[in-house]
């Protein structure tokens, strides 16, 4: 079979083409007391885009090449900020709590935050088997299993990972561990265990139960009066089931009993009312409504999760909890409390679910206290929204018999022995209650209260504060943004402060009234100081952090004036200190030579370097008189000792732009990080060797400036020779005569040159005789591509997966849509390249036949849409490589192999346009005997790829065009003949070569009837008076 295409096509799995990278472009802000690393773009450098950042993540984060990051999620917020979350892996093993968020706006990275762990030389092969884990738990903690006759059946979710020995705190000692959960609803036990995968020792164990204590129907609720509810009529009876919200909300007894009513008027005194089931259903509906109204959130998980609430209505229980899949509520003790089912409690428990599906705060220590506090805050705000007459600042007061009794008091946390000051009175410092999660939540509760109502006073630390009212909903908007886009599983209170200030800056402006007010509220609860006072902040200005040869590490820091009103005046005395473990301190004095304005900064380079004799962490401090907040004057730097390196260029990247098409050129530029210890002088010669097979092309450059340690070298652009035509995976090596480490200065990149442009070019795919230099996949691709004829009785391009269950257990990263999914999973893609010169065109089209077929594998638990497993993206690029218009996505994959037709206008700009048809497939099988793709695979099949024009702007040689539509067809199809070719004689031939119809085709449009044809594939062969042949394949459904 022949394909009418505009140029030779090229396949590849993914293109590692990098855009320009300025120097490091990020500085670190780890605040003393925070549990994350916070980064902002360097003030003096151009900002990065996310591709520039992620292409060199390890270098920016000062991590070894054994580390990698996978995208967990990426979403566009209503304010058009893009928030992308990454998970760290070490040698393919997940690092617990090490996730990172990148925040973009207008294509630039504005800030980063999260936790990254510097792991080196850690064994990732376990010595114990998964089957041994339950026995270790039973032996270590027998008290949790005494009432369970068969505890082994309740263990689940075993996972190999790497964790800090003091997780969720940070010690710098890492262990290979297994996570294992025990979940027994009947016994009210849900516990997590972390077990050393080498020694079998128990590292950590804690409770997973996230508890409060630790048709229209009318329902007479216990605590909120008569309420209207949407309820379903099932088998002639109304039930506490609502199918109008997402995938449904249902309230049942823990034993599975369904609550029913005959007339949908649920009277006071009924069993369901007395036990609180009506309050649970009402509170659940309103909680879902609240998240939709204010945050456009679809259910607890953002994807309309079916919510099943259970009520323990036969045994007394003074508690309620979320257990990662649903809720359980108790009916109280009948003496001091009634059912624990008021709307603030229901909203509290369901917010635990929202937290699980957003930032995933661990239910331990500070992160657990924040988790609890967020649930309190949302629960009370939901109560204020739907029962304002019954609102107060007491959490869970309505179930208590005694008036003004509750679990917690947000207006006065001390009343119930909860702290209102960070690490102040009543703060829990031990491991009881998972590290005080129900107690230490008082800090964020009180912060929310004083912002909601406004308050002034003096806290127990003697700090005066004046907080103006911001309001409940505006404050809640900031907290939800923090939950959804900034916090991670191990965030501490200082991390929440940093997040809320970043959001306030984004929403209201830096140093705005609202920004200062939020900072003042944090000051009131002891988390940082106000921003109207003097405040110096110390940040790391030197990345990567490597000490070379003799171990002298030049320390460089940036000092930022965080005050919104006060300058640091010229002549201010400062003291800078470097502390290296087991060595003398380095102390240096400095006097400012100019005013440092609010928000301004300057860089201080220590005169004396730190001496480093091993991989180690050093502490750098700065101080000035009258600094209101000294918690942010200290940073820790993890320094890597490299005794062999004096000069070292590494992490080479090649930026490519330009046109792949005939008469066009690709322009390239090399960028490399210089991590040596000695400067490279101006005028130094560097050599770039480009290698493919036995071909080597050399480019020589001379540095135009001195390259200092920690900076980058960037060559001028140069033309990439067309000797690399077709699809080429090229090795680029940067050679410097004095480079002492020559194993890290090379990298592969891909280039695509297409040498045939024009309409009517015929390329035979028969027998795989397609230009072999253009058909290739990277060795680490998770795809297979072949030319096969057994699918549609004609040679076609067939894409399938093949390594979804690979040795590294690398599974595709889920996405909210096909666009996200393709961009997040380049290893599962291949791209077909075509060219068209639009110089003399007024209109042109791209068309092809395609099949998107899903194999037998079920993706219900992996993907948002199973059709992602066989998707297509079509996009166009100009001569500089820039995208033209928006990509088009084809997402119609199903279990049936349906022949379909695609057609799209090609954008006309007078240039050579590069067309990219990217196909993604996941699961595939190659038959071991025939070496052909198995039909049970996920497949994308492309055939009859054409570029055809409809009009010509200037005189040129007529170009043959046969256009058939629709294709596939049913009863008839139309054929368009270019008028310059006159009348054609046609033959319609079936798959065995029999002519089933023939006749004449006039210029322009002709309609041919096909009622008598059977379903299948056909070839339309045409010849004009000069003997010119035309072919087109058709499919009848």
Helicity level = 10-25%
Q: In the CATH classification, which architecture of the domain at 286-524 applies?
A: Orthogonal Bundle
CATH class category of the domain at 286-524? Mainly Alpha
Structural class: mainly beta
Low-confidence stretches: 1-32, 41-45, 756-779, 951-960
**Rg (C-alpha, Å):** 33 Å
| Assembly type | single chain
Shape: globular
CATH fold-level name of the domain at 286-524: Neutral Protease, domain 2
Helix tally equals: 13
Amino- and carboxy-terminal Cα gap: 20 Å
Description:
With 1037 residues, this protein is mainly β. Among the domains are: 130-208, Nuclear Transport Factor 2, Chain: A, CATH 3.10.450; 286-524, Orthogonal Bundle (Neutral Protease, domain 2), CATH 1.10.390; 649-745, Sandwich (Immunoglobulin-like); 960-1037, Sandwich (Immunoglobulin-like), CATH 2.60.40. The chain is 14% helix and 37% strand. It is built from 13 helices and 62 strands. It has a six-stranded antiparallel sheet. A six-stranded mixed sheet has the order 12-22-23-21-18-17, with helices on one face. Strand 38 (649-658) and strand 39 (666-674) form a beta hairpin. The longest helix is centred in the middle third of the chain and has 22 residues, at 365-386. The radius of gyration is 33 Å and the shape is globular.
């Amino acid at each position: 079979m022949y394909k009418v295409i505009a140029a030779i096509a090229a396949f590849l799995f993914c293109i590692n083409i990098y855009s320009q990278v300025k120097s490091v472009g990020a500085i670190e802000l780890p605040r003393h007391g925070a549990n994350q690393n916070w980064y902002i773009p360097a003030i003096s450098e151009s900002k990065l885009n996310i591709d520039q950042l992620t292409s060199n993540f390890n270098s920016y984060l000062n991590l070894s090449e054994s580390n990698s990051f996978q995208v967990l999620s990426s979403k566009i917020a209503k304010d058009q900020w893009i928030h992308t979350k990454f998970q760290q892996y070490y040698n393919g093993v997940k690092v617990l709590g090490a996730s990172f968020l990148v925040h973009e706006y207008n294509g630039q990275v504005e800030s980063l935050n999260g936790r990254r762990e510097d792991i080196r030389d850690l064994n990732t092969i376990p010595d114990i088997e998964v089957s041994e884990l339950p026995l270790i738990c039973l032996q270590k903690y027998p008290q949790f299993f005494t009432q369970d006759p068969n505890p082994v059946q309740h263990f689940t979710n075993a996972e190999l990972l790497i964790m800090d020995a003091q997780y969720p705190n940070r010690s710098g000692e890492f262990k290979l561990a297994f996570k294992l959960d025990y979940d027994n609803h009947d016994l009210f036990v849900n516990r997590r265990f972390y077990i050393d995968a080498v020694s079998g020792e128990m590292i950590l164990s804690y409770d997973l139960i996230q508890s409060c204590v630790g048709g229209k129907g009318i329902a007479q609720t216990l605590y909120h009066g008569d309420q209207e509810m949407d309820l379903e009529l099932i088998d002639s009876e109304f039930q506490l089931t609502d199918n109008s919200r997402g995938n449904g909300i249902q309230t049942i007894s823990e034993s599975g009993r369904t609550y029913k009513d005959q007339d949908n008027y649920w009277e006071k005194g009924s069993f369901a009312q007395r036990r609180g089931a009506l309050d649970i259903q009402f509170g659940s509906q309103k909680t879902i409504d609240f998240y939709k109204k204010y945050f456009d959130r679809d259910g607890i998980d953002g994807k309309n999760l079916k919510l099943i609430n259970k009520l323990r209505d036969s045994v007394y229980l003074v508690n309620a909890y979320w257990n990662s899949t649903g809720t359980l509520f108790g009916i109280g003790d009948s003496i001091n409390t009634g059912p624990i089912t008021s709307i603030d409690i229901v909203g509290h428990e369901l917010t635990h679910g929202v937290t699980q599906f957003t930032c995933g705060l661990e239910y331990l220590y500070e992160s657990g206290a924040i988790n609890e506090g967020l649930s309190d805050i949302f629960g009370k705000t939901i109560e204020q929204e739907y029962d304002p007459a019954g609102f107060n600042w007491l959490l869970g007061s309505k179930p208590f018999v005694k008036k003004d009794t509750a679990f917690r008091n947000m207006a006065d946390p001390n009343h119930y022995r909860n702290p209102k000051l960070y690490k102040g009175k009543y703060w829990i410092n031990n491991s009881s209650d998972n590290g005080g999660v129900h107690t230490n939540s008082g800090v964020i509760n009180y912060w929310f209260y004083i912002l909601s109502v406004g308050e002034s006073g003096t806290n127990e630390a003697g700090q005066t504060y004046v907080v103006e009212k911001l309001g409940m909903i505006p404050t809640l908007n900031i907290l939800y943004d923090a939950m959804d886009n900034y916090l991670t599983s191990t965030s501490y209170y200082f991390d929440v402060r940093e997040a809320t200030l970043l959001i306030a800056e984004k929403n209201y402006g830096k140093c705005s009234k609202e920004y200062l007010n939020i900072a003042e509220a944090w000051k009131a609860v002891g988390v940082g100081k106000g921003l109207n006072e003097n405040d110096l902040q110390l940040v790391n200005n030197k990345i990567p952090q490597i000490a070379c040869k003799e171990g002298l590490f030049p320390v460089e820091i940036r000092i930022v004036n965080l005050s919104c009103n006060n300058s640091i005046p010229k002549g201010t005395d400062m003291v800078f200190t470097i502390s290296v473990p087991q060595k003398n301190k380095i102390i240096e004095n400095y006097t400012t030579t100019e005013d440092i304005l609010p928000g301004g900064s300057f860089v201080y380079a220590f005169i004396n370097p730190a001496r480093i004799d091993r991989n180690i962490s050093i502490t750098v401090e700065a101080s000035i008189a009258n600094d209101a907040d000294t918690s942010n004057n200290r940073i820790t730097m993890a320094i890597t000792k490299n005794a062999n390196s004096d000069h070292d260029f590494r992490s080479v990247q090649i930026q490519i732009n330009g046109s792949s098409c005939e008469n066009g050129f690709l322009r390239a530029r090399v960028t490399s990080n210089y991590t040596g210890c000695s400067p490279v002088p101006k005028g130094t010669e560097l050599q770039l060797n480009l290698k493919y097979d036995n071909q080597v092309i050399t480019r020589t450059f001379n540095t135009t400036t001195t390259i200092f340690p920690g900076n980058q070298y960037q060559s001028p652009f140069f033309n990439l020779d067309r000797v690399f035509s077709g699809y080429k995976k090229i090795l680029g090596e940067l050679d410097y005569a004095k480079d002492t480490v020559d194993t890290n200065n090379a990298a592969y990149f891909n280039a695509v040159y297409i040498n045939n442009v024009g309409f009517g070019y015929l390329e035979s795919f028969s027998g795989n005789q397609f230009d072999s230099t253009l058909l290739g996949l990277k060795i680490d691709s998770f795809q297979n591509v072949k030319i096969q004829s057994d699918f549609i009785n004609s040679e076609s391009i067939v894409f399938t997966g093949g390594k979804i269950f690979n040795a590294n257990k690398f599974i595709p990263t889920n996405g909210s849509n096909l666009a996200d999914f393709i961009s997040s999973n380049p290893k599962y893609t291949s791209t077909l390249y075509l060219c068209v010169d639009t110089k003399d065109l007024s209109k042109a089209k791209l068309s092809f036949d395609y099949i998107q077929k899903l194999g037998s594998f079920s993706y219900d638990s992996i993907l948002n849409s199973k059709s992602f497993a066989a998707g297509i993206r079509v996009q166009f690029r100009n001569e500089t490589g820039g995208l033209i218009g928006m990509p088009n996505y084809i997402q119609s994959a199903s279990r049936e192999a349906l022949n379909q037709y695609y057609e799209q206008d090609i954008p006309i700009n007078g240039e050579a346009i590069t067309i990219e048809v990217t196909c993604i497939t996941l699961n595939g099988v190659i038959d071991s005997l025939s070496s052909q793709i198995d039909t049970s695979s996920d497949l994308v099949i492309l055939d009859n790829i054409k570029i055809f024009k409809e009009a010509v702007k200037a005189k040129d040689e007529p170009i043959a065009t046969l256009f058939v539509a629709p294709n596939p067809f049913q009863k008839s199809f139309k054929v368009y003949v270019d008028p310059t070719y006159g009348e054609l004689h046609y033959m319609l031939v079936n798959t065995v070569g029999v002519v089933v119809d023939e006749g004449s085709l006039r210029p322009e449009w002709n309609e041919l009837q096909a009622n008598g044809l059977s379903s299948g594939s056909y070839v339309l062969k045409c010849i004009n008076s000069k003997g010119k042949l035309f072919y087109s394949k058709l499919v009848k459904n």
